[in-house]
């Protein structure tokens, strides 16, 4: 096969992208070589098993993916506001909305939240790392390589173009020939391994590695949200794995699970996809609820209102999330009875969600609200999310859904919940825990600019889309070919660009804060308002997290510790700390599987077998790996802690 | 504080926006038939609850932000209670109220769902009319409307009589699509190998936009049609014209039309139903079996000038 057969040709935008990808790659390689950073990169990052570093890599990748998905969004918005430009063809537009959706959900929202969980959950429960640090590194590399595989489809082979839902029969081999759809299948499959492993890993970490005395109902609410999310991951992701595998076998080896010919069942895909897909929505929203709860309690300077109601409502939401999937296709003709059942189960989710909203409001009652940047993101979430929530209930009313389905009303709804919920939470969480990660805060003034631009842009972009939907504009339409729809589309595009500006300001703030922010001297970065254990350790966090793990028997342990003058450095209690060794095996194993996936995309079976065997060999080697890690000596701990605490 | 002022303006902005949009005519909110009417009533009914929820939450939210901001002048000592963490009575209230709302929303949802599975009831005083059966079949990226009673078939446009229920029998020759005429009512999917029934009815003569609303590839945006709603007599005259002026649909011609791509409007004095039933498991793979290689070709749909062919 000749190289020109697999490169995407004929689109000026893509040529531009190829050139910039090449330039960026050369620049990175050059800088690494020039500053002799290859060894540093390998030793400190590529082989790390430290949950904090892995978390940072997750978040950095997620920000890059947010940029990519955002560029897709802006290109779509340009096309819809200025149809006479002929900016994107139908085919190109279809590819872009497909990659936008897939990247934002799978490669942005989830890794961003998993990154925050990676860094914060062990700190909140007083653990020294994950239960399985090696597995954690493997999860990250499976996500990262899966994401890269998905993204190169842009320039090699062609992007998938059947929507992020990839409905069969459209996405089958007959109607979507070529490698595009395979990129979707293999990219998701590979990164799905990592997500599933992280689910198990965090679940075990939370269940087995909590600080002495900490019962489940003493855990910080973000840790609780993570635990509930892990259960959803563990039950939902296998469904996706199976569905993707079946469709891959259909496409690559010619079986007939979802085809129109050979008595296939195309509608089965929609069922399997949403049996995973709906719980997936809660995988990205429950951790967001956890983050908002932490931030709101901290800057209200008050205990979270209704802690157990918050926990139970998350558990109920998680259970309900598995019995509502049919609401994604009420219009498939399942009949009045089935639709009634799923309609009611869907609307029931509003009850625990409503309870949570009122608990947040009650947390603000008799509080002292301080408007820091993370608090602004969290406060803005409440009214914005309500608008998404109530329209969700409307969509849940199946008889009315016949009119909303597939329209911009739906598009507006899920952007309202996913952006006001998940994206706001990602920003809130990142800014909130930023000092824990990097030893300095983000600049508040620039952060507020980023917030207000993004917040205003968000409402300007998506609010008009409700009305476009009510006027009959379907989603995934590449061109605004009805004159009445144009004005609202222009407004919407303006909002999208405002969000883009907000994002740029946010990224600039990362740079600005790195240069000019004051370095943290205490671990309790937000004026001593920290309530949970992550604020009890020093900043930057030592690699072993806690010199001594405190005894915990209440919800906000650090509040009491501060009152009693206790710290996580009790010299009389110091013992050597057992830590895992760094290893290059996870990245090598996942590179082999990445190679196998890439080969399967182009259906080069021998190469795929080679990659799979390589991955398998790495797994066998792992079984004979007797490296039990090492112990940090007491003197070393003393030295590090005294320096960090200025003793 | 800037935060408070701007966030406080949100509810006001929302109300202004909603009232402003009341001037706009939105198809779904301007129903032209009993099906769309019943869905519109349901939407309107739910909207009152939603507005109620929004007003309550926004009001509480604004109150909290104003009253309990840290730097409000004149804060009292009693305005801060850091250990307040629950109140069983109020928690029960805000759990029960949403449950009541869900029940109140469920009842009309379920009854409407069952009504929509039946032919629309006639207006009081009028006798019930037999529904007119129209088979609506899609193939990438076009619509076939077969009238078995009249033995005619149209491509990419639809004529129906006013005030008479229409029983659409939906199926597809290839990809999954959905028939949506927002002015007349909500959509349902067309799927190969299956048949879905969708009842619609128009109460007003006119021309309404209809389309495939379910994304199905490159020609998706062009898969639209106009619905001409006319009096019984005009409809009969139109049927008569087709029957006398248009040729019969031969199998060869139908096979040609099934090829993936765009076509203009057309009409025939017979239907494709005598050749093939795409709703059967035998017929569902017909297009893929015959034209698989044609799906590799691209349409190169680009400019807005194509608008004419979209209508």
Structure commentary:
The complex is a heterodimer of chains A (647) and B (311). Chain A is mainly α and 647 residues long. Chain A folds into two domains: 1-36; 37-583 and 627-645, Up-down Bundle (Cytochrome C Oxidase, Chain A), CATH 1.20.210.10. Chain A is built from 21 helices and two strands. A two-stranded antiparallel sheet of chain A has the order 1-2. In chain A, α7 runs antiparallel to α19 and α19 (585-601) packs antiparallel against α20. Chain B is an alpha+beta fold. Chain B folds into two domains: 2-71 and 88-116, Orthogonal Bundle (Helix Hairpins), CATH 1.10.287; 132-291, Immunoglobulin-like. Chain B is built from seven helices and eleven strands. Chain B has helices at 2-21, 34-67, 88-116, 232-245, 251-258, 286-291, 307-310, and strands spanning 132-139, 142-147, 152-155, 157-161, 166-172, 177-181, 185-190, 196-200, 206-212, 224-230, 266-268. In chain B, β1 and β2 form a beta hairpin. Chain B is elongated and about 90 Å long. In chain B, 40% of the residues are buried. Mean pLDDT of chain B is 89; it is low at 1-5 and 304-311. Chains A and B meet through α5, α9, α10, α11 and α12 of A and α1, α2, α3, β7 and α6 of B.
Tell me the layout of helices and strands:
The complex is a heterodimer of chains A (647) and B (311).
Chain A lengths: L2 H4 L5 H23 L3 H9 L4 H31 L8 H36 L7 H20 L27 H29 L12 H33 L12 H35 L6 H14 L15 H13 L1 H15 L8 H24 L1 H7 L3 H31 L5 H27 L15 H31 L40 H8 L12 E3 L5 H17 L3 H19 L6 E3 L1 H12 L2
Helix pairs in contact in A: 4-5, 4-6, 4-17, 5-6, 5-7, 5-9, 5-15, 6-7, 6-19, 7-8, 7-19, 8-9, 8-10, 9-12, 9-13, 9-15, 10-12, 13-15, 13-16, 15-16, 16-17, 19-20
Chain B lengths: L1 H20 L12 H34 L20 H29 L15 E8 L2 E6 L4 E4 L1 E5 L4 E7 L4 E5 L3 E6 L5 E5 L5 E7 L11 E7 L1 H14 L5 H8 L7 E3 L17 H6 L15 H4 L1
Parallel strand pairs in B: 1-5, 4-10
Antiparallel strand pairs in B: 1-2, 2-3, 3-11, 5-8, 6-7, 6-9, 9-10
């Amino acid at each position: 096969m000749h190289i020109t057969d697999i490169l995407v040709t004929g689109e000026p935008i893509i040529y531009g992208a190829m050139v910039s990808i090449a330039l960026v790659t050369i620049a990175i390689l050059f800088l690494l070589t020039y500053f002799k950073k290859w060894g540093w990169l390998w030793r400190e990052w590529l082989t790390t098993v430290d949950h904090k570093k892995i978390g940072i890599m997750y978040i950095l990748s997620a920000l890059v993916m947010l940029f990519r998905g955002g560029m897709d969004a802006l290109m779509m918005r340009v096309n819809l506001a200025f149809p006479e430009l002929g900016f994107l063809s139908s085919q190109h537009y279809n590819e872009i909305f497909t990659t936008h959706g897939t990247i934002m959900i799978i490669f942005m929202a989830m890794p961003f939240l998993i990154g925050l969980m990676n860094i914060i959950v062990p700190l909140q429960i007083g653990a020294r790392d994950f239960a399985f640090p090696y597995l954690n590194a493997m999860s990250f590399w499976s996500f990262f390589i899966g994401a890269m595989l998905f993204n190169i489809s842009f320039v090699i082979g062609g992007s998938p173009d059947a929507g992020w839902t990839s409905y069969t029969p459209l996405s089958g081999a007959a109607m979507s020939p070529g490698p595009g759809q395979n990129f979707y299948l293999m990219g998701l499959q590979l990164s799905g391994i990592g997500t599933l492993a992280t689910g198990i890993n965090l679940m075990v970490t939370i269940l087995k590695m909590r600080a002495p005395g900490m019962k489940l109902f003493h855990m910080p609410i973000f840790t609780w949200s993570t635990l509930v999310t892990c259960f959803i991951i563990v039950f939902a992701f296998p469904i996706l794995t199976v569905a993707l595998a079946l469709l891959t076998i259909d496409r690559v080896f010619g079986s007939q699970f979802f085809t129109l010919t050979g008595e296939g069942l195309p509608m089965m895909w929609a069922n399997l996809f949403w049996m995973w897909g709906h719980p997936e929505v809660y995988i990205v929203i429950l951790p967001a609820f956890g983050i908002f709860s932490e931030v709101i309690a901290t800057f209200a300077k008050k205990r979270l209102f209704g802690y157990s109601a918050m926990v139970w409502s998350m558990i109920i939401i998680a259970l309900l999330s598995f019995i509502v999937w049919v609401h994604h296709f009420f219009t498939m003709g399942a009949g009045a009875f089935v639709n009634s059942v799923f309609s009611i189960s869907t609307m029931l989710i509003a009850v625990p969600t409503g309870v949570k909203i009122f608990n947040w409001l009650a947390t603000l009652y008799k509080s002292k609200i301080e408007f820091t940047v993370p608090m602004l993101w969290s406060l803005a979430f409440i009214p914005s999310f309500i608008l998404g929530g109530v329209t969700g209930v409307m969509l849940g009313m199946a008889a009315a859904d016949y009119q909303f389905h597939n329209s911009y009303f739906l598009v507006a709804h899920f952007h309202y919940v996913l952006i006001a919920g998940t994206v706001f939470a990602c920003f809130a969480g990142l800014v909130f825990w930023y000092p824990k990660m990097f030893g300095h805060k983000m600049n508040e003034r620039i952060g507020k600019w980023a917030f207000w631009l993004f917040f205003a842009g968000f409402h300007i972009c998506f609010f008009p889309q409700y009305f476009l939907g009510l006027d009959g504009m379907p989603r995934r339409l590449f061109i605004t070919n009805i004159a009445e729809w144009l004005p609202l589309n222009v407004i919407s595009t303006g909002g999208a660009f405002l969000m883009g500006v907000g994002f740029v300001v946010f990224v600039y703030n990362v740079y600005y804060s790195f240069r000019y922010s004051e370095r943290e001297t205490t671990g309790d970065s937000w004026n001593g308002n920290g309530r949970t254990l992550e604020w009890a350790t020093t900043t930057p966090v030592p690699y072993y997290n806690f010199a001594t793990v405190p005894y915990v028997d209440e919800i906000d342990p650090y509040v009491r510790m501060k009152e009693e003058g206790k710290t996580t450095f009790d010299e009389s209690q110091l013992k050597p700390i057992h830590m895992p060794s760094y290893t290059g095996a996870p990245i090598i194993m996942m590179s082999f599987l990445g190679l196998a996936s890439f080969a399967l995309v182009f259906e080069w079976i021998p190469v795929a077998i080679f990659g799979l065997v390589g991955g398998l060999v790495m797994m066998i080697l792992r079984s004979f790996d007797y490296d039990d890690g090492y112990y940090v000596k007491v003197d070393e701990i003393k030295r590090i802690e005294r320096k960090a605490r200025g003793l | 504080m800037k935060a408070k002022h701007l966030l406080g303006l949100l509810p006001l902005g929302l109300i202004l926006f909603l009232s402003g949009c009341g001037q706009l005519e939105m198809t779904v909110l301007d129903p032209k038939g009993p099906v769309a009417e019943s869905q519109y009533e349901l939407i309107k009914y739910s909207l009152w609850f939603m507005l109620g929820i929004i007003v309550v939450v926004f009001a509480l939210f604004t109150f909290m932000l104003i009253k309990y901001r840290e730097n409000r002048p004149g804060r009292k000592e009693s305005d801060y209670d850091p250990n307040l963490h629950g109140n069983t009575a109020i928690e029960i209230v805000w759990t029960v109220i949403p449950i009541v709302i869900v029940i109140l929303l469920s009842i009309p949802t379920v009854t409407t769902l069952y009504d929509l599975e039946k032919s629309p009831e006639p207006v009081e005083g009028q006798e019930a009319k037999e529904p007119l059966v129209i088979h609506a079949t899609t193939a990438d990226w076009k619509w076939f409307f077969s009238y078995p009673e009249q033995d005619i078939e149209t491509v990419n446009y639809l004529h129906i009589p006013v005030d008479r229920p229409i029983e659409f029998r939906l199926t597809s020759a290839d990809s999954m699509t959905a028939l949506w005429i927002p002015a007349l009512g909500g959509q349902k999917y067309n799927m190969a190998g299956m048949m879905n029934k969708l009842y619609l009815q128009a109460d007003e003569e006119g021309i309404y936009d209809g389309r495939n609303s379910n994304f199905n590839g490159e020609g998706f945006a062009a898969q639209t049609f106009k619905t001409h709603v006319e009096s019984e007599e005009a409809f009969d005259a139109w049927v008569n014209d087709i029957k006398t002026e248009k040729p019969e649909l031969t199998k060869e011609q139908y096979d040609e039309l099934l090829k993936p791509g765009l076509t203009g409007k057309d009409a025939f004095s017979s239907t494709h139903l005598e050749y093939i039933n795409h709703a059967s498991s035998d017929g569902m793979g017909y297009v893929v079996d015959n034209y698989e290689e044609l799906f590799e070709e691209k349409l190169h749909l680009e400019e807005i000038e194509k608008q004419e062919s979209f209508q």
